[in-house]
């Protein structure tokens, strides 16, 4: 029970608890820290000289728990009442920016004292704790994080609690900061360049710039206004730069450098000569394959007896033309490879006759 008294008056607090062999420990605070109060009884008679908060811990061998707060508000003058207070208008929720003051009010009748509470302040006990110095019908304070508040209105006849309302605290302005390092990147002609960046800051705006070809004046990209750049360069080399800003700062990146690279393709055979040929035992035959690609080509030749078709690589045959001297009829095959893949072509048969 919370109530108001005049300085020098006594008030008796009591708690009702169930269980056996109960122990009572009362605590008091003037809004700074909690102190033990002597006594082991479900009742406590006090005569505080200033507004004081009380609660009691009730326990036995099986466990324990804390009571709600009681606020004894000490006022000057003579207190009288005809009825407990009532609330006509409860506080309303509010949203503020971090560092700003919030002002909430309560409209109550028959009220002689007020105490505002919030969820989890420095007393760190229970769901709601009193806000030091906030003892009027209007609450004015600057919570660092979102919190819930209520007000307890009291007089000599009793007290009533308002609704619990939420104060939402939005982050204040934080200047932008680029977390992604710049560097080099490669692209194929006609493909998109994509640069996603990580950053910190509130309400950040973006503008990407491009120098194409690299070294030309930087120009803003019409669609480059998000944290991820998507662009289709046409030059062999290009520079990109990002500027980020908000109402409390601006940062400009170093340059990203993009290089065009040739798209790798699998080789394509364009010729093979001669076709099947016949040689006399002891003679040699030359076979030439021509393949095309846009990157260097590596060749590998194979041979197989006609009656087995078991292919064996020919040593030192990593060129486009080979000269062979088989002792019996043989079939030949060639592979042309790049980093992108391999193409295989069956080559002519070389038949061998006796002299």
Structure description:
The chain has 355 residues and is mostly beta strands. The protein folds into 3 domains: 1-172, Immunoglobulins (Immunoglobulin-like); 177-260, Sandwich (Immunoglobulin-like); 268-353, Immunoglobulin-like (Sandwich), CATH 2.60.40.10. The protein contains no helices and 36 strands. The strands form 10 sheets. Strands 1, 3, 4, 6, 7 and 8 form a 6-stranded mixed β-sheet that branches. Strands 10, 13, 14, 16, 17 and 18 form a 6-stranded mixed β-sheet that branches. The chain starts with a strand and ends with a strand.
Q: Which value, in Å, is the CA radius of gyration?
A: 44 Å
CATH class of the largest domain: Mainly Beta
Q: Kindly report the CATH topology of the largest domain.
A: Immunoglobulin-like
CATH A-level architecture of the largest domain = Sandwich
Biggest sheet, open or closed, and with what strands and sense?
6 strands, mixed
Question: What's the quick description here?
Answer:
The chain is mainly β. The protein has strands at residues 3-6, 11-14, 23-29, 35-37, 43-46, 52-60, 63-66, 70-75, 86-89, 94-97, 102-105, 107-109, 113-119, 128-130, 138-141, 147-155, 158-161, 165-170, 177-178, 184-187, 193-196, 199-200, 205-211, 219-220, 228-231, 237-246, 249-252, 256-260, 268-273, 277-280, 285-292, 298-305, 312-313, 321-324, 330-338, 341-353. The chain folds into 3 domains: 1-172, Immunoglobulins (Immunoglobulin-like, Sandwich), CATH 2.60.40; 177-260, Immunoglobulins (Immunoglobulin-like), CATH 2.60.40.10; 268-353, Sandwich (Immunoglobulin-like), CATH 2.60.40.10.
């Amino acid at each position: 029970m919370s109530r108001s008294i005049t300085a020098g008056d006594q008030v008796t607090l009591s708690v009702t608890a169930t269980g056996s062999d109960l122990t009572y420990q009362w605590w008091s605070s003037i809004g700074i820290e909690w102190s033990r109060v002597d006594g082991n009884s479900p009742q406590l008679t006090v005569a505080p000289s200033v507004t004081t908060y009380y609660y009691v811990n009730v326990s036995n061998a099986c466990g324990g728990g804390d009571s709600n707060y009681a606020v004894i508000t000490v006022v000057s003058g003579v207190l009288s009442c005809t009825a407990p207070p009532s609330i006509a208008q409860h506080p309303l929720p509010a949203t503020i920016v971090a560092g700003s003051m919030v002002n909430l009010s309560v409209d109550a009748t028959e009220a002689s004292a007020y105490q505002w509470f919030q969820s989890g302040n420095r007393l760190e006990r229970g769901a709601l704790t009193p806000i030091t110095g906030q003892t009027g019908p209007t609450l004015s304070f600057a919570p660092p994080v979102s919190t819930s508040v209520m007000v307890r209105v009291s007089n000599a006849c009793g007290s009533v609690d308002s609704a619990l309302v939420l104060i939402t605290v939005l982050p204040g302005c934080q200047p932008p900061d680029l977390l992604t390092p710049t560097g080099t990147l490669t692209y194929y002609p006609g493909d998109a360049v994509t640069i996603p960046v990580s950053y910190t800051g509130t309400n950040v705006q973006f503008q990407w710039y491009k120098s194409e070809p690299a070294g030309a004046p930087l120009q803003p990209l019409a669609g480059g206004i998000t944290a991820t750049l998507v662009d289709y360069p046409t030059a062999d080399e290009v520079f990109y730069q990002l500027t980020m800003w908000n109402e409390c700062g601006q940062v400009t990146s170093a340059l990203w450098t993009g290089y065009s690279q040739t798209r790798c393709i699998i080789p394509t055979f364009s010729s093979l000569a001669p076709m099947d040929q016949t040689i006399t035992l002891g003679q040699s035959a030359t076979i030439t394959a021509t393949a095309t690609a846009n990157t260097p080509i590596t060749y590998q030749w194979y041979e197989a007896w006609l009656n087995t078709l078991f292919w064996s690589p020919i040593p030192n045959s990593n060129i486009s033309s080979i000269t062979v001297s088989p002792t019996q009829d043989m079939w030949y095959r060639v592979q042309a490879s790049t980093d992108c893949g391999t193409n295989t072509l069956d080559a002519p048969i070389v038949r061998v006759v006796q002299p």
